[in-house]
Design the sequence.
């Protein structure tokens, strides 16, 4: 007697695949990314609304030159439902009415752009914009921490950016 069993392997799966990052690790490497430490800053985990800085552990002294580079094609998203929120480390420069009020900060004297990469050397007391490229002489020593500047603590932030960091020690002579 032959038994007939239903085909339990029949069915279909539909998947939508979307490439979120434009950074291709097989591309020719830009020389500014060679011999640098790299750190991944996550939009949700390291959000300024959560006050959760990524401590790099890099201690900077007076006269050091800090160089931070990020690929401009490397993207994170502050509101994953909308493609208009795909941003690189320079953040959002409002081009639509919907986004026009998101580029402000409540820190007096600060010009920090929503979705941009921001740094601090003193645990967040003073902040500076990083963007896709920063080269800065250190005037006040401290430990470098990085954060995604975002005023919304929702669960919708996705993605991360990779920062390549170099320090040129005592590049500027210090006069006592």
Sequence:
């Amino acid at each position: 007697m032959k038994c007939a069993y239903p085909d339990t392997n029949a069915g279909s799966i539909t998947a939508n695949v979307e490439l979120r990052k434009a950074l291709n690790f097989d591309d020719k490497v830009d020389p500014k990314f060679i011999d640098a430490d790299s750190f991944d800053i996550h939009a949700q985990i390291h959000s300024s609304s959560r006050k959760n800085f990524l401590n790099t552990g890099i201690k900077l002294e007076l006269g050091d030159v800090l160089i931070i580079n990020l690929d401009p094609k490397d993207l994170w998203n502050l509101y994953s439902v909308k493609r208009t929120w795909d941003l690189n480390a320079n953040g959002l420069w409002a081009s639509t009415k919907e986004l026009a009020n998101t580029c402000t900060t409540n820190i007096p004297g600060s010009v920090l752009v929503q979705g941009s990469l921001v740094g601090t050397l003193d645990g967040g007391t003073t902040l500076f914009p990083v963007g896709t490229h920063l080269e800065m002489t250190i005037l006040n020593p401290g430990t470098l921490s990085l954060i995604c500047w975002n005023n919304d603590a929702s669960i919708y932030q996705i993605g991360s950016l990779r920062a390549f960091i170099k320090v040129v020690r005592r590049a500027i002579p210090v006069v006592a």
The chain has one domain: 36-168. The radius of gyration is 21 Å. Strands lie at 37-42, 54-60, 65-69, 76-77, 86-87, 117-120, 128-129, 133-137, 142-148, 158-168.
